[in-house]
Amino acid sequence: NEKILNDEMMTVFHQGNSYYNNKNYEAAIESFKTVIMNFPNHGMSYFKIGVIFEEKKKERERKKQERESTK
Questions:
Q1: Residue 23: left (phi > 0), alpha (psi -120 to 50), or beta?
Q2: Phi, psi of 39 (to 5 degrees)
Q3: 16-36 in b/e burial notation, b at 16+ Cβ within 10 A?
Q4: Residue from 5, 6, 7 nearest 43 by CA
Q5: What pTM was estimated for this model as a whole?
Q6: Backbone phi, then psi, for 5, in 5-degree steps?
Q7: How confident is the model at residue 1 (pLDDT cuts 50, 70, 90)?
Q8: Potential cystine with 28: which of 14, 19, 23, 44 (Cβ 3.0-4.6 Å)?
Q9: Which pLDDT tens digit goes with each residue over 23-58?
């Protein structure tokens, strides 16, 4: 079953979570992409990438609002 990761990819997945928790989004995305390349049906990796894109979008919107409020 391609949804269950081997030990190596589980380590990469957990590293991606660690990067995410430390807001190192680009490294997290790379980790999750590595998992997906090896296990294309691993839905949680796709989900995590989606969460990161949402976080980055919120960050951009927050920064934009901050810039506009200081004008």
A1: left
A2: -135, 80
A3: beebbeeeebeebbebbebbb
A4: 5
A5: 0.85
A6: -85, 150
A7: very low
A8: 19
A9: 999 999 999 999 999 999 999 999 999 999 999 999
